[in-house]
Specification:
The structure holds 2 protein chains of 2 kinds.
Chain A (H helix, E strand, L loop, with lengths): L5 H10 L5 H14 L8 H18 L3 H12 L9 E5 L2 H7 L1
Helix pairs in contact in A: 1-4, 2-3
Chain B lengths: L1 E13 L4 E7 L6 E6 L6 H20 L2 E6 L8 E4 L5 E3 L2 E2 L4 E4 L8 E5 L3 E5 L3 E3 L2 E4 L9 E9 L2 E2 L3 E6 L6 E5 L9 E6 L2 E3 L6 E3 L6 H17 L15 E5 L11 E6 L3 E4 L1 H9 L7 E6 L8 E3 L2 E2 L5 E6 L2 E6 L2 E3 L1 E6 L8 H9 L27 E2 L10 E5 L2 E6 L13 E4 L27 H15 L2
Parallel strand pairs in B: 7-15, 17-20, 17-23, 18-21, 23-29
Antiparallel strand pairs in B: 1-2, 1-4, 2-3, 4-5, 6-8, 8-12, 9-10, 9-13, 11-12, 13-14, 13-15, 16-20, 18-19, 21-22, 24-29, 25-28, 26-27, 30-33, 31-32, 32-33
Helix pairs in contact in B: 2-4
Classes of the chains: A mainly alpha, B alpha+beta.
């Protein structure tokens, strides 16, 4: 899973006074553990992890979505510059020379 | 026996022979006029051969490829026809706005694509250059429509020029970017524009905006490829393994927003996961069998990238290895491909695509490569390659991390410069570059450029063996 950017961590703490790194780390650990489990074999455990994560975020980080979306908006991929293209038009004399 | 070399300038059917009349040479005025005569007395195999020569000459005429035609000294009846080879090979059609790639050998890192037509010379800087391959995310519209030749050129180096026909569209649904090793099942990475998304609750499917943003998809594919093949970590360049990999994109505007086409699932609060069991069937409909699938989606609400490990086919062929003395295997084939859900809007300054590939290309049962930035325990009982745990956070870090194939690997005592968090019991293998975070750790915390982060040595060695076991299957 894409790691949490340090700026998002700080923004979460700024938006939720009293929120600790340990609580954010707990959410991160719940998600990474979820994705370490085979969903075909551990569906119940994944549901339990999901429920704990949702409850923790609801209680301690109610502005989580707002904060993470604002950061994603800032860092969203910019359209990649088109590849450098050089065009050299040929004249009739160029064409004759190339022959 | 004489040999005439040149372009096929004209090919006509001559009832009087009966057979074909072919003009070969640099121009009609100076061409050799040769014949392929189909005699009623020819044995069937000879007639078939002559028909094949006519078909080959017709293709060479259409494509503008030079040929070598053999005939008796002083005679005009063709005895063999060969299309001369080129030292580069365009992959697929040249279409404005579509992907475009060319394969070759020992291509310089500063090579450019040069399109030559009657009216202009257009030089295009590729998005990615490898010694065997150059890649352009979108063929510029400045390349003239119709017949061109394309070559690769760098200072002091030039390939041959290959005739290509450039068209204005339509862009392709399935595009092979690199065909990989010439075998039935090359290691294959498929990058898909996700047609539909399943909502958080499950069971509701909506069209993915990714299919409405073709340029965005091309940018995202380019990001994924540059991330994997041109950042500092050379896992996918070592031994030129990337020359063996098959790379394919799927962008199907006609795919409906239905269960079978929904390859991504939202997870609260901002995560997107692949629907891993749908992937094999989906890419199979387009004739592909994937080892890893990148699901590129257009969600801006669930845009945190995730991955699922591969599930290797335990019943298929395997390559043995030992880890901490235990016998393990790399499965050569996937039962369920590895997968990653990546937003097309992903921050392209990071290492997200390669990081997720690191998860996706590992295996649920015989070696997971997990995130290192969290201290989570519990992996469902399977082997984790890149992380271990102490009994207690106060316990000293062991000097050795693990044994792999008879070699002991040291632990990372300092977690690069980040340090292990107080209370963590987890620890990692020694890094290749101890000055930057592991690429499976929080690469955003590097002091300079996330794209310079590398793996730890054990995971690198393990992955090299695993990927080659699959590439050489």
């Amino acid at each position: 899973m894409q790691p949490l950017h340090p700026k998002v961590r700080q923004a979460l703490k700024n938006a939720h006074p009293g929120l600790t790194d340990a609580e954010i780390d707990r959410v991160e650990a719940l998600i990474t553990r979820r994705f370490a489990l085979d969903p075909e074999k551990h569906a119940d455990e994944i549901r339990r992890l999901d429920a704990e994560r949702v409850a923790l975020i609801k209680e301690r980080m109610p502005r989580y979505k707002e904060i993470t979306r604002a950061f994603a908006e800032e860092t969203r991929a910019k359209p990649r510059p088109r590849p450098a293209v050089r065009v050299q038009r040929k004249t009739r004399s160029d064409d004759k020379r190339s022959r | 026996m004489a040999a005439t070399t040149g372009l096929v300038l004209q090919l006509t059917w001559a009832d009087g022979l009966p057979g074909a009349c072919v003009f070969v040479g640099p121009s009609l005025e100076s061409a050799e006029i040769l014949f392929i005569r189909l005699r009623s007395s020819d044995p069937e195999r000879v007639r078939d051969f002559k028909k094949s020569m006519i078909a080959l000459l017709a293709k060479a005429l259409g494509a503008g490829y030079p040929v070598i035609v053999e005939h008796p000294d002083g005679g005009t009846e063709v005895t063999s026809a060969t299309i001369e080879g080129f030292d580069i090979s365009p992959v697929g059609a040249a279409i404005h706005g579509d992907f475009y790639s060319v394969t070759g050998r020992n291509i310089p890192s500063d090579a450019e694509l040069v399109f030559e037509s009657a009216g202009a010379t257009v030089t295009v800087t590729p998005d990615l250059i490898r010694p065997h391959w150059v890649f352009v995310a979108r063929l510029p519209v400045e390349v003239p429509l119709g017949r061109n030749t394309v070559s690769l050129q760098a200072p002091g180096w030039s390939s041959q020029a290959v005739p290509v026909d450039v068209s204005g569209g339509p862009q392709t649904t399935v595009r092979v970017l690199h065909s990989g090793a010439p075998k039935v099942r090359p290691y294959t990475i498929v990058l898909v524009a996700n047609p539909a998304i399943e909502d958080e609750e499950g069971g509701t499917f909506t069209a993915d905006a990714a299919l409405g943003d073709r340029p965005g998809f091309h940018d995202a594919v380019s990001f994924c490829l540059r991330n994997m093949f041109s950042t500092t970590e050379d896992l996918l360049r070592q031994g030129h393994i990337d020359a063996s990999l098959r790379l394919v994109t799927v962008f199907d505007e006609t795919a409906e927003a239905i269960d079978a086409n929904a390859l991504a699932h939202e997870i609260d609060p901002n995560l997107m996961e692949t629907r891993r069991t749908r992937l094999k069937g989906f890419v199979g409909r387009y004739g592909e069998t994937a080892d890893v699938v990148f699901v590129l989606h257009g969600s801006v609400t669930h845009d945190r990238a995730t991955a699922w490990f591969t599930t290797d086919d335990a019943a298929g062929p395997t390559t043995d290895f030992t880890f901490d003395g235990a016998a393990r295997v790399h499965g050569h084939l996937p039962a369920i491909p590895g997968s990653a859900a990546i937003p097309v809007s992903a921050d392209q300054t990071g290492l997200t695509a390669f990081h997720e590939f690191g998860h996706a290309a590992s295996d649920f049962n015989n070696g997971k490569v997990v995130d290192l930035y969290a201290d989570q325990a519990g992996s469902g009982g399977a082997l984790v390659v890149n992380k271990k745990f102490r009994a207690d956070a106060a316990d000293p870090l062991p000097a050795d991390f693990a044994e792999y194939n008879g070699t002991d690997h040291a632990s990372d005592q300092t977690r690069d410069g980040l340090g292990y968090e107080a209370g963590w019991t987890s620890f990692h293998d020694e890094l290749i570059d101890a000055t930057r975070p592991n690429m499976m750790d929080n690469y955003w915390q590097t002091f300079d450029d996330p794209q310079r982060c590398r793996l730890d040595q054990l995971t690198y060695d393990w992955f090299v063996d695993r990927l080659w076991a699959k590439a050489l299957r």
